[in-house]
Write a structure and sequence with these properties.
The chain is of the alpha+beta class. Helix content is 36%, strand content 29%. The chain has 3 domains: 55-141, Multidrug efflux transporter AcrB pore domain (Alpha-Beta Plaits), CATH 3.30.70; 145-187 and 278-340, Alpha-Beta Plaits, CATH 3.30.70.1320; 192-272, Multidrug efflux transporter AcrB TolC docking domain, DN and DC subdomains, CATH 3.30.2090.10. The chain has helices at residues 14-20, 23-40, 67-82, 112-124, 158-173, 197-203, 207-216, 244-248, 263-266, 300-318, 332-340; strands at 55-61, 88-96, 99-106, 137-141, 145-154, 180-184, 189-195, 220-227, 232-238, 251-254, 260-262, 267-273, 281-282, 285-294, 323-330. The strands form 5 sheets. Strands 5, 6, 13, 14 and 15 form a 5-stranded antiparallel beta sheet that branches. Strands 2-3-1-4 form a 4-stranded antiparallel beta sheet, covered by helices on one side. The protein has a two-stranded antiparallel sheet with strand order 7-12. The radius of gyration is 31 Å and the shape is flat. It starts with 13 loop residues before the first helix and ends with a helix. 15% of the residues are buried.
Length: 343
């Protein structure tokens, strides 16, 4: 009877094959290194990732109102309009003294640009907000990362410097590697209207009447939509007043004999800036920030190089006399240091 002895064949399996064949593991190693080098250029370089919040906030100021008044006269009305929209995941509201905040969470995959249009249209249909409440403001909440901040400064008026900053912003947004540019450190434009109490009493009017007339003559509200066979067409009533001359022509009182009283006849109208405590100066001259952010799938290093090159070669030589521009801070070296830790 023959008895089988111990197994004396060659070991099987990929590890055994690699151990017995010196060429195969070397080829595999070089292949992995090559794939890593090829994919290295496509890796996103960022310190903090851009996280999509899928959230839109509606903010509205109602000076002097209590939280209870805010909830009843503003928040409830906004929630009733928004909760009927499709793809709304949740609604969170906050009522504080003088302010209302409604945050709308959307389902993953929702086009936020279309969602913003829907929210603005829905809120724009509300005609029963308090007369003294300010216009609602809308913005998309995100975690954008600042890449580079420029400072525009010089001996110029605030309006001239702000308009020049907008020109720089528009130039930077045309660059192929830049998509998000914002301006900060400057005051918002404001139309102030002052009416004396003596004039109001003579006409039998109140400040609320003046505010209502201005609001009704300065509207940009949604009027709904029209469904066609090919698409949906949004309809808006355009009557927004933007400058001093437009506000001067607002009719406050219209008599039966055809005579009218315009706002310019009873009020002092000033086209200027909002009163704030924020002042930005550089070497004793007014200054404005122009900040570039990284959008989704954009490279920090590429944005920094593109912006710096454009500033030096295009923007700086074209600035008016007495105006300068400098890089206030550039975060790309921080990302380069962190990337170096991985090498």
């Amino acid at each position: 009877m023959n008895q089988e002895g111990p197994y004396s064949g060659e070991p099987a399996g990929p590890i055994a094959y690699m151990a017995s064949n010196r060429i195969a593991p070397n080829l595999l190693m070089f292949g992995i290194i090559a794939l890593g080098l090829v994919s290295l250029g496509g890796l996103q370089r960022e310190g903090w990732p851009v996280v999509p919040f899928n959230m839109i906030e509606v903010f509205m100021a109602y000076p002097g109102a209590t939280p209870e008044e805010i909830e009843e006269s503003i928040i409830v009305k906004i929630e009733e309009q928004i909760e009927t929209l499709e793809d709304v995941k949740s609604i969170r509201s906050l009522a504080a003294p003088g302010v209302a905040s409604v945050r709308v969470q959307w389902r993953t995959g929702t086009d936020l640009s279309e969602a913003m249009d829907e929210v603005q249209a829905a809120v724009g249909q509300i005609q029963s907000f308090p007369a003294t409440a300010e216009r609602p403001q809308f913005w998309e909440m995100d975690s954008r990362t600042s890449v580079i901040r420029l400072m525009l400064f010089g001996d110029a008026t605030e309006q001239a410097l702000k308009e020049l900053a907008y020109q720089v912003r528009n130039e930077l947004k045309t660059l192929p590697d830049v998509s998000l540019v914002e301006i900060s450190g400057t005051r918002d434009y404001e139309i102030s209207i002052e009416v004396s109490l003596v004039t109001l009493r003579a006409l039998g009017l109140t400040l609320g009447d003046i505010a209502y007339a201005v609001r009704q003559s300065s509207l940009n509200l949604s009027a709904g939509s029209i469904d066609t066979r090919e698409s949906e067409v949004r309809v808006r009533t355009i009557g927004q007043n933007y400058d001093k001359l437009d506000f001067e022509e607002i009719v406050i009182v219209a008599e039966s004999d055809g005579s009218v009283v315009h706002l310019r006849d009873i009020a002092t109208i000033r086209d200027g800036f909002q009163e704030t405590n924020t002042i930005v100066r550089h070497h004793g001259t007014p200054a404005v920030f122009v900040e570039v952010f990284r959008g989704e799938d954009e490279n920090v290093k590429t944005i920094s190089e593109t912006v710096n090159e454009h500033v030096q070669e295009v923007i700086l030589p074209s600035l008016p006399g007495g105006i300068g521009i400098t890089v206030w801070n550039d975060d790309s070296p921080v990302y380069a240091e962190r990337a170096g830790l991985l090498v």
